[in-house]
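Bump. Still looking for FAD/FMN-containing dehydrogenase structure tokens.
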Amino acid sequence: MEKITSDDIRFADLAEKRFNKRFTGKPEYFYLPESTQDVVAAVQEAVNAQKRIVVRSGGHCLEGFVSDPSVQILIDMSLMNGISYDAERSAFEVQAGATVGETYRRLFLGWGVVLPAGEHPNIGIGGHVLGGAFGFLCREYGLAADHLYAIELVAVNASGKAHSIIATREENDPNRDLWWAHTGGGGGNFGIVTRYWLRSLRSNGSDPTTALPQAPKSITTFRVSWDWNNFDKTLFSQLAQNFGTWAQKNSDPESPYKKLFSLLFLNHRNIGKLEMKGVCTGAKALQLIDEHLASIADPLGLSYTREVEETAWLQFALNPFPELFQPGFDKVRTKIKDAFLRRPFTDDQIATMYKYLSNNEPVGGGLGMATYGGQVNAVMPGATASAQRDCILDVACNTGWGDPEDETASLNWVRNFYKDLFATSGGVPVPNEQTGGCVINHPDTDLTDPQWNQSGIPWQTLYYRDNYPRLQQVKQKWDPKNVFHHALSIGL
Ligand SMILES: Cc1cc2nc3c(=O)[nH]c(=O)nc-3n(C[C@H](O)[C@H](O)[C@H](O)COP(=O)(O)OP(=O)(O)OC[C@H]3O[C@@H](n4cnc5c(N)ncnc54)[C@H](O)[C@@H]3O)c2cc1C
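Sorry for the wait, here they are.
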């Protein structure tokens, strides 16, 4: 396989491929494997030469796990992007280099089915599914990882030999724990996933059109926007409370609202508006959206703009809420600090939100709240490695900046905001009655730092709760030399 070094015309392009421009790596060279054997060869070469090797699929890592100056060889999975139906395993085979958008497209056009995965079409399937992966359809169909049937992994054994292995969720598969670790353990931990096989748990037949959920024919989107200037502390609090209360009432696995997924954007005042966006599927979509907004937006008594439209599924999936991913979005440097909630924010927390979001600091960002639960909560915490199965909201304090000079102010703002938001539990959302930890697909290295995590609860518990010891056992078995590691990787 060809080494792509700095004198190759492809090098600069490959070096630029990363969502979060906050981090920059300096690999000696890239590999673009086209087969599992290519990946085995590249990993063996790295082990023999004692060079640090890391894999990248879609490049959407929010931390610097891939764009890390200590990485010497970077495997880019882009050319392994095939999607087909494997009749032998009665499952869809998706190579790790496929994007989420391409997976939506091929599954829909080929078989009319859908994988309930993440929101941005450019995310790589490779680094996404193994972190759990939630999105617009998660309340109706669960996490992407809940539909994972098998993986193919390139790993390195105790003798330093690179090899490939297939692990399935079949009860009698001796490698079942390796499959399990890829249902929420996160990327860059055990080896390089080359292929995923997808099949829903309840699907046993050989008909591909029933192997995954049927895709919606159409999806109804809604957008609501308020002028920030019309909000005082009381109205702001009411909005945040209404959203939390709605999520608390309507996030059971069989909730009549499980087809509805909603986002509340509590933006910083600098951005000028507060917004809701969401989607709903099914014949009752308009009614459910009306009822949702009647519980959250209408009681404020403020005028707001409201747009509701029905879009064919694939058109939406390949370009969801284009205004969220505006030009310039791909030049951003960002910090996201994620938290799961089991209960709505308290009044004190909402007061903290108001303080940080209405102050005069010249920052861009806010606090996003996404509805969670529904069918995600139909799965037991230990059944997959995605332990958070009792949460109603996933929230994130976030900031973005273009000019490197704004980095310090932006980071200080978002870090202090998050720390104060969870002040009663040491600055982080420890698993307790109200909060439920964090999601590894939105990694945050601050959780390892005693300045920002004063809870006494290790970051591993925040991400994995009781599943961490089992993940460590998988790590010991499948990556005993810790070839695959980063700042938040599973320890030996
Ligand atoms: C704009 C944006 C929107 C997002 N939306 C969502 C969302 O809706 N839902 C959600 O759950 N998450 C979301 N995420 C988070 C996203 O799922 C994770 O960042 C995911 O890890 C990205 O995968 P990737 O392959 O694109 O990233 P990469 O940067 O390529 O990799 C991320 C990590 O996974 C590892 N990895 C990559 N490929 C493999 C592989 N083949 N085998 C083993 N390890 C691998 C990498 O080494 C790295 O540690 C979003 C992120 C962004 C930037």
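The domain at 83-215 is CATH 3.30.465.10 (Uridine Diphospho-n-acetylenolpyruvylglucosamine Reductase; domain 3).

Edit: fixed formatting.
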